[in-house]
Design goal:
The protein is of the alpha/beta class and about 350 residues long. The protein contains 11 helices and 11 strands.
Length: about 350
């Protein structure tokens, strides 16, 4: 059981602490985990329910008690915690969103808020916490780990922008959702000899835009990783297509690379081609998860329980070269990744 050595009259500067590593610790000196919490945090992603389901089922089948934390870290410090069993996760595998819900928490961004979360785990007798979310969620988990709470992170974000893993839960579903919407928009664009400018999610990463752009045959793909010249990379491409007889155009823009409405307005003003913006927005977060997201979420959930059983704490579950494994929490958060230049070049060759 946890024993947090701080209280609200003695709140440490958590940023100066280091989460303990269990790599070289004698497992015999570490108490086994018997009661765990699980929460989802940050933006929801298709497959989060499959993650929760896997943690609950694998945990209970390993002799653990599992408690669900409602509304992420916000619910943790408020004590919105209740035991969940096998029946509670039935019929959740195919559902989008997260039945535990998620929320942003200003309180948990403070040292006092983190301490309250850790103390609430003591109140419920929780030995460890499994967190599904993105980088921000893992930073919240790291803050808890620095106070002595054993944590496991499972990457759940549609943006696929977590540096330590090749794949994040929800990415495949969001791309398929965007692709299906863009295919429909292409039908109407071709009927009206129109340019359709479609904004997809990706504030700081263009993975969705790049791959969806390739899959839908977009004439122009704009992503945050690559600066662009509007005249050369947008107008010239569209005009060259028109001059060769093309009568409809698709422009895909990641939200971090530009504004669809502004781009559509500029295209129409400078070319005379009717242009319509479409912002897919949170449509990309919803929907039943694909086979890949259900399978990846399930296997990552099982691996999280394996880490706890083997007393490997403060880990992030990752996919590397097609295999599910784990990495130290601090090390994983320090890693970054970007889109390989060959993928960007290949997209240009296909446009």
């Amino acid at each position: 059981m946890l024993n947090i050595p701080y209280d609200e009259t003695n709140v440490p500067d958590i940023s100066t602490l280091t989460a303990p590593s269990y790599d070289n610790i004698d497992a015999n000196t570490v108490a086994p985990v018997k009661r765990i919490g699980v929460l989802t945090s940050g933006g929801d992603a298709p497959g989060m329910n499959a993650t929760i389901r896997a943690v609950v089922r694998a945990g209970i089948n390993s002799g653990m008690e599992v408690y669900g934390v409602t509304r992420g870290f916000h619910g943790l410090w408020k004590g919105e915690i209740s035991q969940i069993g096998m029946r509670d996760v039935s019929e959740t595998l195919q559902r989008g969103g997260t039945f535990l819900m998620t929320a942003r928490s200003k309180t948990f961004t403070t040292d006092v808020g983190v301490l309250r979360g850790a103390k609430m785990m003591e109140v419920y007798g929780l030995d460890a916490l499994v967190v599904s979310g993105g980088d921000g969620s893992f930073k919240g988990a790291r803050a808890l780990a620095r106070l002595g709470v054993p944590v496991i992170g499972i990457p759940g974000t549609i943006d696929n922008d977590i540096g330590c893993t090749d794949y994040t839960i929800g990415y495949d579903t969001s791309m398929n959702t965007a692709m299906e919407a863009i295919d429909k928009l292409r039908d109407t664009a071709s009927s009206h000899e129109r340019c359709s400018v479609i904004e997809v999610m990706g504030r700081s990463a263009g993975y969705i835009a790049l791959n969806v752009g390739i899959a839908t045959g977009a004439e122009v793909i704009l992503i945050p990783e690559v600066p662009f010249d509007f005249d050369k990379d947008v107008l010239r491409v569209i005009l060259d297509g028109r001059n060769k007889g093309k009568r409809h155009y698709i422009v895909i823009v990641a939200e971090g690379a530009g504004d669809a409405t502004d781009i559509a307005t500029r295209i129409e003003k400078q070319t005379g081609i009717e242009s319509r913006p479409t912002i897919l927005g949170h449509l990309q977060r919803g929907g039943s998860p694909t086979l890949r997201d259900r399978t990846t979420a399930s296997l990552m959930g099982v691996h999280a329980i394996d880490c706890l059983l083997n007393k490997k704490y403060n880990r992030i579950i990752v996919e590397k070269e097609g295999k599910i494994t784990d990495i130290d929490l601090e090390e994983g958060l320090a890693m970054q990744k970007t889109i390989p230049s060959i993928e960007i070049e290949n997209a240009k060759r296909l446009s």
